[in-house]
Structure formats: C-alpha cells, structure tokens
Inverse folding.
C-alpha cells in the first residue's frame, strides 16, 4: 500500500516541484485511471496488468491536455495566482467526479477476472496476495523509471526549469513544453498507480478523494518536489497505517497517519527531504 | 487623495446598509418555502465565506479546514442545548468562541508553515477533527445528533413552520461578518494583514508582527465560522460529522469568497449570491436526471470563473463602474 | 555613533557570507557599502535589519544590542530598509503601501493616512497615491519602497541597490531623494555595486570582498586603494 501511496504522491510531487502547482484533482485522475482499466477490461477483456501501459499513455495525454487547456492559463493570470491554481484544479476535480458519476453511476465496482486475483504466494509462511505483490513490484519499477528519467537530458531540463525559469528560457529550453511534459509524466505515474490499484481495490467516483488526501500528506511529509521524499514518506505512511490499524481500532489508522504528519511538520516545516 | 479612501469607505458602508435593508424586506412578498430556504442558505454562506475571507482573503492564509470550526460551533451549541438545556441563542456565541479558540490552536503550529504546506496542514487538521467526531460516541459518532424540538422560541432558535425568523438570524449573521470585515479593512490590523498576504518579508521589515496578525485573523475568522455552524445546526435540526465537518464543506465555505473575489468586502456576498442558487438549482433540476451532471456543471463553473476572472466576480462590477465614470 | 557592527560573521549552509565584519556608522552620514557581486552586502543588510541572526558578533544601535531580535524589533528601534528586488504590496494602492509603514508609529488610520500622505509628498509620489502599486514603473516602485520605509520614521535607512538599473536621469533624481532623506536627519547606509554611482554621494564607504571588509575610507581614498581595484577589476589593472 505504501508503494502505491508513494507512486501517487510522486506524480503530485513532480508537478509541484516543477511549477509550484498543487494539483487538487490528483485523486480524480487516479479514479479516472481506475475507470479506464474497468472500461478497457470490459471492452477488450485484456488483463489489467497488460492494460497498464495503455492507461499510462492515456493519462499521459490527459495530463498534457489539462496543462495546455487549463494550467498554462492559470499560470498566466496576474492576480491571486495561488488561489486560481487551487480552485482551477479543484473545479476540475469536481467536474471529473461528476463526469464519472454521470457515466458510471455511484456504485462500487470492481475489476473482476484478474488472472492474479485470489492467488497468493507463500513466502516463508506469510501469505502474500499476488495482486498486491505485483502492484508493489510495478510501483518500484515505475519509481526506478522515474528516477532514471531524472538522470536523462529531459530530467536535467526539468531540474533546470525548476531552478531558474528565466535562465532556462535564455538557453533555449521551451518552458511551456517542459511543463506540459512534466504534467503528462506526473499524470502517467498516477495512471500506473491507478491501473495497479484497480486490480484489488473497488472503483467508484469518490475513490480518489481518500487517496488524494494521503497523497498530499505524503508529498508534504516527504517535502514538495522531492522524489526520494515521496518514496520514503509513502512507505512510512503505509507502515504507520498498518501498525495503528493493528494496535487500535481500524478507524484510527488515518488519525495515526495524520498525527505523524503533523509531528514531523512541526520539526521540519518543509518535510523530511524538503529544502529548508 | 486622502479623502479618496475615506469617501470609498463611507460609500461602502452606505451600500451595505441599503443592501441590508433590501434583504430585510426581500422575503416578505415571497411565500414560497423553497425560495425562502434558498435565500437563507445563501445568506448563511455569504456570512461563512466572509468569515473565511477574513483569514484567507485579507490575511492570505488559504485555509482548507474551516469545516472544523464550523463543526465545532455546531456541535458545541447543539450539545449545550441537548444535554444542558442551554439556549442556543446564547450557545451559538459559545460555539463561535470555541471556533475561534480552535482556530488559534490550529494556527499556533500551522502558521509556521507557508504556502501549500499550510493549506495541506489545514486539510489534515480538518480531517482529523472529522475522524475524531466520527469515532466519538459521546457526540453521537457517525449517527450525529438530533436537536429535539421544544416549541417555537427565539431563545432556542426553533421555529416549526416559519422560515422568516431564520431569515433574520442568518441575515444578522451575514451582516455582522460583513461589518467586521468592513471595520478590519479600515483598521491598522487590516493593513497589517494585507501586507502579510502580499509580502511577508516586506511586512516584517516595516514592523508588522506577522504571526500575531495571522493569529488575530484566524481567531476572528474561526469565531464567525463557529457562529455560522451553530446557526446551521439549529436551522437544520440535525448534525452529523459528514454534514458539518467533512472536507468538502471546508471548500464550500471558501468557494463563494474565491469566486466572488478574495480580500474584497463584496466578494463573498456576490459569490454566495451566484453560487448557492446555481448549485441548488442544478442539483434540483439536473441532479435527478443524470446523477453527477450537476457536479460537472458546478466544477466547470468554478474552473471558468477562476480562469476568466481571477480577481473574482466583483471585478466585473468595478469595471462597469469605471467605464461609467469614463463615459 | 549611531550603529556599531562588531565582529559579525554569518554563513549559509557552510558558505561564509560575512566574516568578522566590524565598522561604525556616524549619526547623519551617508555610508556606502560596496563590493563586487557576492561580496556579502545583502547578507550584511539582512543581519542589520534583523531578518537573519548572525552566527557571531553583535550589532548595536545607540549602544543597545539589536542583533538577533528579529525584524519587527529592529523596525521599532528605528531601522528601515528597502529591498534589492522590489517587494511592494501589489494588491494595495500606493498610499496604502505607505500606510502600512506609517502604522508602525501611528495607531489610528487617520493619523497613519496623514503621515503617509506627507511622506508621499516628500518622495514625489503624491500624484500616484491612489494607483495600485503593481501599476507603477520600476523607478517609481523603488521610490515607493523608500517612502514606505521612511513612513516608519527610521533613524537609519538601509537602501539595497536602489540606484542599480536606472537610467542616468532616473538615477540622478534617486540621488537627490537620498540627499533629501539625509537632510531630514535620517542616517543612510546604501548598498551599491556600481562604484561610480555611490562614491559622489557618500561620505565614507565600506568595501566588502568575499565576505570580509577590504577597506573603509573616504571615496577618494577608496578609488586609489590597489586592493579595491584588484577586487573589482582583477590583477592586471593594478599599477605596479
């Protein structure tokens, strides 16, 4: 679970680190990815695991479109830029949730017939359900890919754009293009997370909300813009959740997570790996 | 030039009085319960959004956890009434005070955070409040609390069939919040808060106590939000964590201010006057036909307004006035 | 002696911005603080205005220690500053910007408004009073910062590169403004890295290089100092 959190958060963190925008529609994009799996599965009958690249690509496109259509405009306003960003992405979130409800209804759905479903491996006496295990592995791979990307030329361009926007324009990097790619990449990351999650979690228009909240906490805990921070914080949150759920009533698990978050922020106001 | 500000402030006060008078007679010719209810809700949100505006607009601290103060006000006033027979007319001020205190308590650690870190911390604090009440049996847990009906009474703010008294209560609430914002705008505090919003470092260098400014704004904002919560509880007669403490509600409080124009006197009022009818109408007319369509419309509206009028809807009014002056 | 800086050191993340800096500022003078980029001028300003706390050493205003008290206390003690990158309150009008400063000394808005009006008049911004701050031109914004700082009725005004990037005419009127400020009895420290602009204006200058005090002296002494020339221009220009 922690790894999924980490991956969802990584996409958020990428976008934030790049252009200082918190995407409040992040959870809804996750939901969108899950529904995409659901629909594609219904149409093609292909396995969710195979659909993952398709969904990632879809979300890549969606991210690009959202940036071009909305975010670029939000960034260019003169006043209240911070607020415009928050409420544009928030409005988008409501819109997407409404659209999903409109198209699919509010019931809980699950993706069935997964070839990994209900299988588990016996690992030294501990039974691990396969879908979760696969999700974990894929998330780790995606993370590795994300880190690898940051080493490439594109990654350096991203980094440079983050550091100094004006200078970047001078050396001929198209800021707009980098931002659009950043959004696309951030969303594709969510697409992967969503595709994996759909394998063992119910799908519903509101599913994104709870994950998004955790994602914001994860990002803030790890430090906005820090990939490593997102990974560590995601795993940490997964663990804290498991431990509090085991020790107390399950209802308290989120309180535990939020509590830890607040405590950390008191000590390090910019998260574990944030630049102070 | 100096008179410019004073004249503008006087003009605003007069406009406020005129609007107040108009709103006071507005419901008299309207017998329709549905419309009256809509007006009451709009007034309530105009007040709540103004309360949010005091912290989020003037002081620039984007709180997304105001449902906590709202819920606290609602629960405190209601529980005082249900368990101790304490009259809500006074209890709502206790609720407001608790809201203000909570805002201080939240602000003390959170105001050290800046920008998005602050916004997300408030989301989290609000969510903790929601989860606590959800699992706290004394306050009814997830089932919530019913307010028993004990007969029409101003002291208890209960009226079985009439909507009119609630109209005046919410109108007084909205007017009080508006007047508080008006007072703040012209005072030393208001200037300090706006300076903090625009540039913290510059504000500090001019001797503005940043932390104290934020705390003062939070306390006032929390007070009015709690007050609104208490009124809401008596009006609806039933509260549960979902309806008064949910994360969505925090956004609902902030939205009218943002759409209308943050950090302006009339923004929250205009925003509520546009937003509440739109959301109410789309819910009742479109909500049934295809569930979710109302949300789509609502979301699209937010996006469009935020992008097209970043200063909020009030800037439309201002522009027309300028054009009229130029002509 | 108005201000005394004693053995001040400050480093950021292992990089020393200021090392063992000591100098005094006399009441009523205009002191230049010059040096090449990265010499630690702005960092020193941040220490004097209370924005950062020095790692070592202390700063005394009228013999009272002000280092480490924070910007608010420094403002109250009578230190005001402008910023290298203009920080105007853009959602407010010019008059309102200056009123924020005036509220440091006045309780009521009426008094603050009157005081702010006077300062605007003094700085030549009175015709702009009702304009939103964001609509000002860059040199006007610089003036606005000076006006805002003056509204706090400072004893010491810190000007951070106020003249940099202005056209010669604009710079000339800026210079006049600074002279007027001094004539009001306000002591001025001005940071500038273009020597030609500052030297005619100041009585004395402190030259910083690589975080240390290179020399302190009158303008004519400074331009002849070989170490100053070396710091600015490199070795080859030093006459042997």
């Amino acid at each position: 679970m922690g790894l999924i959190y980490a991956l969802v958060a990584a996409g958020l963190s990428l976008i934030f680190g790049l252009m200082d925008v918190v995407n409040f529609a992040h959870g809804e994009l996750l939901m969108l990815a899950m529904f995409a799996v659901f629909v594609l599965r219904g149409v093609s009958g292909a396995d969710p695991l195979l659909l993952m690249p398709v969904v990632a690509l879809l979300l890549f496109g969606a991210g690009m479109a959202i940036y071009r259509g909305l975010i670029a405009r939000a960034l260019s306003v003169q006043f209240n830029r911070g607020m415009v960003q928050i409420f544009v992405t928030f409005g988008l979130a409501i819109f997407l949730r409404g659209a999903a409800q409109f198209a699919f209804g509010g019931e809980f759905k699950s993706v069935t017939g997964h070839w990994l479903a209900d299988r588990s491996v016996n690992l030294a006496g501990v039974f691990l359900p396969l879908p979760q295990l696969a999700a974990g592995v894929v998330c780790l791979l995606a993370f590795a890919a994300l880190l690898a990307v940051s080493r490439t030329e594109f990654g350096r361009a991203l980094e440079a754009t983050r550091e100094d926007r004006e200078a970047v324009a001078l050396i001929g990097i198209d800021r707009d293009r980098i931002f659009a790619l950043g959004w696309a990449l951030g969303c594709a990351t969510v697409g992967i997370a969503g595709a994996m999650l759909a394998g063992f979690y119910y799908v519903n228009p509101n599913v994104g909300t709870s994950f998004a909240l955790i994602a914001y906490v994860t990002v803030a805990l790890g430090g906005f813009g820090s990939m490593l921070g997102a990974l560590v914080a995601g795993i940490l949150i997964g663990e804290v959740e498991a431990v509090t759920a085991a020790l107390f009533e399950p209802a308290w698990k989120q309180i535990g997570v939020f509590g830890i978050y607040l405590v950390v922020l008191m000590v390090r106001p910019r998260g574990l790996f944030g630049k102070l | 030039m100096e008179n410019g500000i004073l004249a503008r402030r006087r003009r605003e006060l007069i406009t406020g009085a005129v609007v107040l008078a108009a709103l006071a007679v507005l419901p008299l010719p309207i017998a329709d319960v549905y419309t009256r209810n809509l007006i009451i809700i709009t007034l309530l949100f105009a007040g709540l959004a103004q309360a949010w505006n005091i912290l989020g607009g003037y002081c620039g601290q984007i709180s997304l956890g105001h449902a906590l103060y709202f819920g606290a006000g609602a629960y405190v006033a209601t529980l005082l009434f249900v368990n101790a027979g304490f009259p809500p007319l006074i209890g709502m001020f206790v609720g407001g005070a608790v809201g203000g205190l909570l805002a201080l308590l939240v602000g003390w650690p959170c105001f050290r955070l800046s920008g998005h870190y602050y916004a997300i911390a408030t989301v989290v604090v609000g969510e903790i409040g929601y989860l606590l009440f959800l699992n706290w049996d004394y306050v009814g847990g997830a089932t919530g609390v019913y307010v028993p009906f004990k007969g029409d009474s101003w002291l208890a703010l209960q009226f079985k069939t009439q909507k009119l008294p609630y109209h005046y209560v919410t109108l007084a609430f909205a007017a009080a919040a508006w007047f508080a914002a008006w007072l703040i705008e012209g005072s030393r505090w208001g200037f300090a808060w706006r300076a903090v919003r625009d540039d913290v470092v510059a504000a500090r260098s001019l001797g503005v106590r940043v932390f104290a400014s934020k705390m003062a704004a939070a306390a006032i904002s929390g007070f009015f939000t709690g007050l609104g919560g208490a009124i809401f509880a008596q009006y609806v007669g039933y509260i549960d964590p979902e309806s008064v403490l949910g994360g969505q509600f925090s956004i609902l409080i902030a939205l009218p201010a943002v759409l209308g124009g943050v950090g302006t006197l009339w923004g929250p009022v205009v925003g509520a006057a546009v937003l509440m009818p739109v959301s109410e109408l789309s819910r009742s007319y479109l909500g049934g036909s295809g569930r979710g369509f109302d949300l789509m419309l609502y979301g699209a509206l937010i996006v469009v307004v935020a992008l097209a009028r970043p200063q909020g809807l009030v800037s439309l009014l201002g522009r027309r006035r300028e054009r009229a002056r130029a002509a | 002696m108005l201000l005394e800086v004693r053995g001040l050191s400050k480093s950021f993340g292992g990089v020393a911005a200021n090392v063992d800096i000591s100098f005094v500022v006399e009441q009523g003078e205009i002191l230049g603080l010059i040096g090449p980029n990265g010499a630690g001028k702005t960092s020193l300003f941040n220490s004097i205005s209370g924005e950062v706390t020095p790692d070592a050493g202390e700063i005394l205003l009228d013999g009272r220690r002000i280092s480490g008290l924070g910007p608010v206390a420094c403002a109250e003690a009578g230190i005001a500053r402008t910023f290298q990158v203009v920080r105007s309150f853009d959602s407010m009008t010019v008059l309102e910007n200056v009123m924020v400063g005036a509220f440091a000394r006045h309780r009521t808005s009426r008094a603050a408004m009157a005081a702010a009006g006077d300062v605007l008049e003094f700085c030549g911004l009175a015709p702009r009073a009702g304009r939103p701050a964001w609509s000002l031109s860059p040199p006007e914004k610089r003036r606005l910062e000076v006006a805002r700082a003056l509204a706090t009725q400072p004893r010491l005004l810190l000007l951070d590169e106020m003249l940099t990037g202005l056209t010669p005419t604009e710079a000339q009127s800026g210079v006049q403004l600074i002279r007027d400020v001094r004539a009001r009895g306000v002591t001025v420290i001005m940071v500038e890295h273009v020597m030609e602009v500052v030297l005619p204006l100041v009585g004395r200058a402190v030259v910083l290089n690589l975080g240390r005090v290179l020399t302190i002296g009158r303008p004519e002494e400074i331009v002849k100092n070989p170490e100053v020339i070396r710091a600015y221009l490199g070795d080859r220009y030093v006459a042997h």
Remarks:
- The interface with chain C takes residues 78-79 of chain A (CB under 8 Å).
- The beta strands of chain A are 120-123, 126-129.
- The first helix of chain A runs from residue 2 to 19.
- Chain A has eleven helices and two strands.
